[in-house]
Every structure is written in structure tokens, then in C-alpha cells.
Specification:
The protein is of the alpha+beta class and 256 residues long. 51% of the residues lie in helices and 14% in strands. α2 runs antiparallel to α5 and α7 runs parallel beside α8. The relative contact order is 0.12.
């Protein structure tokens, strides 16, 4: 079975614990940061109210066709029944949060993020692969001790359409040897830079998702560690910091 087919099957089967954690985090943030809606409809696309509705609609639609239909029905009545429709949508968000919490509890994955004891090698491997495979457009890995073996384990089967950046240090030449072979075979867009200014072990997914790791990816599962999603404002701020470091970092030269 090809990696692309595996990704398609997984999408049809629905979200796993990693995706559910992200949806739970984002729905909770949306509910807590909802703007004041007032008494009259505000449908200007630049308004906080309209942007909030767009964000919530995308999140609810991600949970299935029934949630998408419910939201669409309420959204279509906003102009005529603004206040009532807003209450309906807020209720849909709250219901979705509780449903995801219950699903995670039944799967024994109710805590946001996960802790891994020494020896939990495969559990960490499977969870981190799920994090990376959840990306739709881009992945950025920041880890000073990321190495070629870690690249092979976590990125060799990544979606070739992704824009992948690796910011590492100690094993950069080792990683580069894997990247060169991967590019020749798959034509992937993978960039590698080296920096001494790395303090976190963190993975950025698309625009505003970030997972922080308690130790180097190459040792994860061998030593105690954790994998925790960051709240969106922190993830965005962290990403800006590491984009600035990326722009100042040195590209790793190709091997002869």
C-alpha cells in the first residue's frame, strides 16, 4: 500500500487522537475568544464577528457532514435572526467540544498532549507521525539534535506536496545526505538550515499549529518525554521567532 493511499484511507476513517486534540484546542479557543455580537447582523468580511464565524464554520465542518449542515443552516439565517442564530452556533461549538472530550476519554486519550515513559518508543513514533501527516501545506521541524535516522523515520513518507523545513545543528550533514537522496527520488521540497540558536524542540504544522517536544526527536521514547500542542497565539509567536532565526541561518552545503 502506498503512503498516499494510506493517507487517503486515514482521512476517510476520520480523525485520530492527535487531530482531535487540535480540534478541541481550537474550538475551545474560539468559544473563549468570541467577540461581542450585539443585536444586529454584522456580515462585513473584515469584522471580528464575521471572521469568527468563518473560523468556527471551518472547524465544525471538519467534524463531519452533520456538523457542517447544522452550521450552514444557522449561518443562512443570520441576517434575519442574528441573535438566535449566534446562540445556535455557539451551542454547536459547545456540543462539539463535549463530544470530542467524550471520544478522547473513551479512547483513554483525554489529556491534551501525551507524556511518554522510557520505552514508549512506538507510541511516540505513531503519535508524532500522526502530527506530521496532519499537515496540509507545510511542516517546520526545529531540533538541534535531529538526525538522518529521525528524518528517515518521520519524513521519508511525508506527503511530497508539503513544503518541509528543518532547522537543526549537530547532525546537519547526516540529515542532508538523506535529503539529497529523497529529492532525487521523489522531487520533494525540503530545505535544511543550521543554527546554534535553537533552544526548543518544536514542530510547526501549516500556519498556526505547533507541538512542543520534551527532548530531541531522535531519543524520544528511549527517554521520558512529552508531546504537547501549543495554544494558537503562542504557536504563532513561536513560529515568527523561528522564521526569523531561519532567515539568518546557514544553508547546509550539499555533499560532494
Amino acid at each position: 500500500m502506498t503512503d498516499q493511499l494510506e493517507r487517503m484511507i486515514k482521512k476517510l476513517e476520520g480523525d485520530g487522537p492527535i487531530e482531535k486534540h487540535i480540534l478541541l484546542l481550537k474550538l475551545t479557543e474560539a468559544l473563549e475568544s468570541a467577540p461581542e455580537f450585539g443585536e444586529k447582523a454584522i456580515m462585513d468580511t473584515s469584522s471580528p464577528q464575521r471572521q469568527w464565524l468563518s473560523k468556527v464554520g471551518a472547524l465544525l465542518s471538519r467534524l463531519g457532514i452533520d456538523k457542517k449542515v447544522q452550521f450552514k443552516s444557522s449561518f443562512n439565517s443570520l441576517v434575519q435572526y442574528w441573535k438566535h442564530a449566534i446562540v445556535q452556533i455557539q451551542g454547536q461549538v459547545l456540543d462539539a467540544i463535549e463530544e470530542i472530550k467524550l471520544e478522547l476519554e473513551l479512547e483513554d486519550r483525554c489529556d491534551i498532549g501525551s507524556a511518554y515513559a522510557p520505552g514508549d518508543v512506538y507510541r511516540f513514533f505513531a503519535d508524532l507521525k500522526d502530527v506530521i501527516n496532519s499537515a496540509e501545506t507545510e511542516v517546520m521541524i526545529v531540533d538541534p539534535y535531529f538526525n538522518g535516522e529521525a528524518f528517515d523515520a518521520y519524513l521519508s513518507s511525508a506527503n511530497p506536496a508539503l513544503d518541509i523545513k528543518i532547522l537543526a545543528d549537530h547532525y546537519s550533514k547526516d540529515i542532508n545526505a538523506y535529503i539529497e537522496k529523497h529529492k532525487k527520488q521523489y522531487g520533494t521540497d525540503i530545505d535544511l538550515k543550521r543554527s546554534k540558536d535553537l533552544h526548543d524542540r518544536i514542530i510547526f504544522i501549516d500556519q498556526d499549529v505547533a507541538w512542543i517536544i520534551g527532548g530531541s526527536i531522535k531519543d524520544a521514547g528511549k527517554k521520558a518525554t512529552y508531546l504537547i500542542p501549543l495554544q494558537t497565539p503562542i504557536a504563532v509567536a513561536k513560529k515568527q521567532i523561528y522564521q526569523d532565526i531561519w532567515s539568518k541561518s546557514k544553508e547546509v552545503e550539499c555533499s560532494a
